[in-house]
Design a protein that fits this description.
- InterPro entries: Bactericidal_perm-incr_a/b_dom, Bpifb1, Lipid-bd_serum_glycop_C, Lipid-bd_serum_glycop_N.
- This is Lipid-binding serum glycoprotein N-terminal domain-containing protein.
- Keywords: Signal.
- The chain is an alpha+beta fold.
- Helix content is 33%, strand content 37%.
- The strands form 3 sheets. Strands 1, 8, 9, 10, 11, 12, 21 and 22 form an 8-stranded antiparallel beta sheet that branches. Strands 13, 14, 15, 16, 17, 18, 19 and 20 form an 8-stranded antiparallel beta sheet that branches.
- The longest helix has 46 residues.
Length: 475
């Protein structure tokens, strides 16, 4: 009987083993910086960020707190500002965003260049005095943990990039007007970054939050699998280099909306390839892929009147049975019947660049369609090469020729015999009956909604040793 010390030692070893086990999610969605950049750019347009820039209260801001934050007391500053009728942004543009790893290496830095022209109206000159203003806003995308321990993406530290502000006159006018404009520009140098932080940064944060919600929504879009569908659920995000990775849970849901199978983090291996220059990738663990194929190909029974449908195979079968039993062969009538039962759903085995499907099949031969007992029952361990490819945004799968790897005599009413004698003809029957039936069910393919949701028309796919990877097709 084990003592307390032994029990304590075993518990300690078990705890260490569990701690060292790396749990891997059922799927991982990797998003490159191009996807983040394009979706955030669109969200900024949807939030009318340019209009926010055009509405910046430049004049009231510099009147409240001129250079140095000191209230207007000096007669000189007062007289200068009294010569300004209005001062506002007349045109604004948000230039191409830049997304790159942050300097601290803990997140992604989003840099948003701003290009504006401000107009200054003064009675000292009949034309509008125009100033060119260039600056850059920077914010950091990072992973934040809530009080409950849940992690999510957030946008932090939104502010004007240090040293990015440039203000210059677009045209030279009189000495007096130039002096006035230069003074206004000096007042704008501290005022503009504050306006960006108070007026634009909240809009940028809202745009990011909406982008985040949209990404989670497209992740949750159900993937149709015949009468069933596959759903992904976000588990937790991570930032690796310039890539955002969303770890995903998964579940199979039937036509009544009931979950028939859950997929959670486990020790099952999952190889997530480097994104490199690919905009995004969806890496799906082998057991999830296997379950998706099984949902498309449930267990079924096929019944064939062989002499009517495949007369040549009917003659081959009769000749093969005649070697075993002449009496049995003579009993085969024009309505001889073959039943094929897929005993279990296909088992998909992935490897680097290739896939194989294994099946357990029961095959029975009846003398006529009215016979209640079969001549014999065979158990067949079959396999096929499985070919994944894509068409538009659909993942396609096709089984190649079936091979009978092992054949077993499960029951016989015509005496014991070596089932290998029937291997060739039964394999031909499987390839002529079962294979077209299964490929017919696979032919529509599996639509991957997130491909078009992320802005791409066509998908591509490849296999690793333990996963299926879906990416946008090369443009």
């Amino acid at each position: 009987m084990a003592g307390p010390l032994t029990f304590t030692l075993l518990c300690g070893l078990l705890a260490v083993t569990l701690a060292e086990t790396t749990l891997r999610p059922p799927a991982v969605l990797s998003l490159g910086r191009e996807v983040i950049k394009e979706r955030l750019t669109q969200e900024l347009k949807d939030h009318d960020a340019v209009n926010i820039l055009q509405q910046l209260p430049l004049l009231s801001t510099i009147r409240e707190k001129p250079a140095g934050g000191i209230p207007i007391l000096g007669n000189l500053v007062n007289s200068i500002l009294n010569h300004i009728i209005w001062l506002k942004v007349t045109s604004a543009n948000i230039l191409q965003l830049l997304v790159q790893p942050s300097d601290e290496g803990q997140g992604l830095a989003v840099k948003i260049p701003l290009d504006m022209v401000a107009g200054l109206n003064t009675p000292l000159v009949k034309t509008i005095v125009e100033m060119h203003m260039q600056t850059e806003v920077q914010a950091i995308i990072t992973v934040n943990a809530s009080e409950r321990g849940h992690t999510h993406l957030v946008l932090e530290d939104c502010s004007n990039s240090h040293g990015s502000l440039r203000i210059s006159l677009l045209q030279k006018l009189s000495f007096l007007v130039n002096s006035l404009a230069n003074k206004v520009m000096s007042l704008l140098v501290p005022a503009l970054p504050k306006l960006v932080k108070t007026q634009l940064c909240p809009v940028i944060k809202e745009a990011f939050e909406d982008m985040h919600v949209d990404l989670l929504s497209l992740v949750r879009a159900p993937i149709s699998l015949g009468s069933n569908h596959l759903e992904f659920d976000p588990l937790s995000p991570a930032i690796k280099g310039n890539v955002i990775q969303l770890k995903l849970g998964a579940k199979l849901v039937n036509s009544q909306g009931n979950v028939t199978k859950w997929f959670k983090e486990s020790a099952v291996s999952l190889t997530v390839p480097a994104l490199d220059n690919t905009p995004f990738s969806l890496t799906v663990r082998q057991d999830v892929v296997n379950a998706a194929v099984a949902a498309l190909l449930p267990q079924e029974e096929l019944v064939v009147l062989l002499d009517y449908v495949l007369p040549e195979l009917a003659r081959q079968l009769k000749s093969s049975i005649k070697v075993i039993s002449t009496k049995a062969a003579d009993q085969l009538g024009p309505t001889q019947m073959v039943k094929i039962l897929t005993q279990e759903t296909p088992d998909l085995l992935l490897d680097q660049g290739t896939a194989k499907v294994a099946q357990l099949i029961v095959l029975e031969v009846f003398a006529t369609n009215e016979a209640h007992r079969p001549f014999f029952t065979l158990g067949i361990e079959a396999s096929s090469e499985a070919q994944f490819y894509t068409r538009d945004d659909r993942l396609m799968l096709n089984f190649n020729e079936i091979s009978s790897d092992r054949i077993h005599l499960m029951n016989s009413g015509i005496g014991l015999f070596n089932p290998e004698l029937l291997k060739n003809v039964t394999t031909e029957i499987l390839n002529s009956v079962l294979l077209p039936n299964q490929n017919g069910k696979l032919r529509p393919g599996i639509s991957i909604p997130m491909v078009k949701a992320l802005g791409f028309e066509e998908a591509s796919s490849f296999l690793t040793k333990d996963s299926l990877v879906i990416t946008p097709a090369s443009q």
